[in-house]
Amino acid sequence: MLKIAICDDEGYFRKFIREILTGYMDRNGGIYEIDEFASGKEFVDLGIELIGYKIVFLDINMDDMDGMEAAQKIREVSNDIFIVFVTAFVNYTIEGYKVDAVRYIVKNNVNFSEQVYECMDAIWAKMNYVVKKKTFHFNEGTRNISLERVLYIESRLHKLEFYIMEDKLGRYSLYGTLNDMERELADDAFVRIHQSYLVNMKYIESVSRYKAVLSNGVSLEIPKARYRQVEETYVAYRGEI
C-alpha cells in the first residue's frame, strides 16, 4: 500500500490536494491511503511511525512548525520519504536541496493539478512502482482490474465470485475453477486458504486457528489440514514486505 501524507494548515487546500491525488491514484490502479495533517508538527510528532509514509506534500508556510523545519525533522528519521513542497512563494530553493525535495509546486498556479500529476509521475518512476492489471471477462462485463484491489475470490456453484475493493466492496462473477485461478495468480501474493477461497495476502490482518481475518473484518475458515501451510506462507510474505 502506498501511504501519502498532506500537511497544510488550510483545510480546504488539504481537501483540494486529496481530490487530485485520489484521481491520480484511481487512474493508476494502486492501493493507497491518504492522510491529512493540519501542521508539520502534527506529522513529525508521529515519530518513527512516519516511516510508513512514502510521500508527503508539505506546505512551507505553516504556523508553529513550517514545512522546511518539518522536512528537516523528517530527514532525521528517514531518507526514503519523497518530500514535495507546496508553497505560495518559490524562494526556498537552496533549503529544498538540503532536504532532497522532489518538487516545489506553487499554490496559485493555474496548472496546479497538472503539476501534481507530473510530480506523481516522477515519483512513480523513481519508485519503479508497477501495478499489475489483468483483464477478466466477468458475467457483468469485461473489466481491466488491478490485482492489488482483489480482496479474495470465492468458488461457488461452478462460478468464481471476485470481491474487489472499489469505492465500496464490489462483487463480480465468472465461470471457472479456483484451481485454474490459483495457478494463474501464483506469482501475485494470493494464497489458497480453503478449497473455496483464494485470498490476497495484502488484506489479511491475522491468521489464527483456524481462520484468516481480513482488513474489512471478514473472517474466512482455514481447514486444519491446510492451516500450517497457510500460516507459513503468510508469515513468509509478511517478512518480505
Unreliable stretches (pLDDT < 50, length at least 5) are none
Say how many strands there are: 15
Q: Report the order of strands and helices.
A: EHEHEHEHEHEEEEEHEEEEEH
Return the average pLDDT rounded to an integer. 87
Q: Would you tell me the structural class of the helices and strands?
A: alpha/beta
Largest sheet, strands/sense/barrel: 5 strands, parallel
Q: How much strand content do the residues show?
A: 25-35%
**Number of DSSP helical runs:** 7
Radius of gyration equals 21 Å
Helix content: 25-40%
Backbone shape: elongated
Query: What's the end-to-end separation, in Å?
Result: 10 Å
Biggest β-sheet: strands ordered side by side in the sheet: 2-1-3-4-5
Sum this structure up briefly:
With 241 residues, the protein is α/β, with parallel strands linked by helices. Helices cover 33% and strands 34% of the residues. α1 packs across α5 (112-127).
Model description:
With 241 residues, this protein is α/β, with parallel strands linked by helices. The protein is built from seven helices and 15 strands. The protein has a five-stranded parallel sheet, sandwiched between helices. Helix 1 (11-28) links the parallel strand 1 (2-7) and strand 2 (32-37). Helix 1 (11-28) packs across helix 5 (112-127).
Summarize the SSE layout with pairings.
Layout: E1 2-7, H1 11-28, E2 32-37, H2 40-44, E3 55-59, H3 67-77, E4 82-87, H4 93-98, E5 103-106, H5 112-127, E6 133-138, E7 141-146, E8 150-156, E9 159-165, E10 169-175, H6 178-184, E11 190-194, E12 197-200, E13 204-208, E14 211-214, E15 219-221, H7 224-240
Helix pairs in contact: 1-5
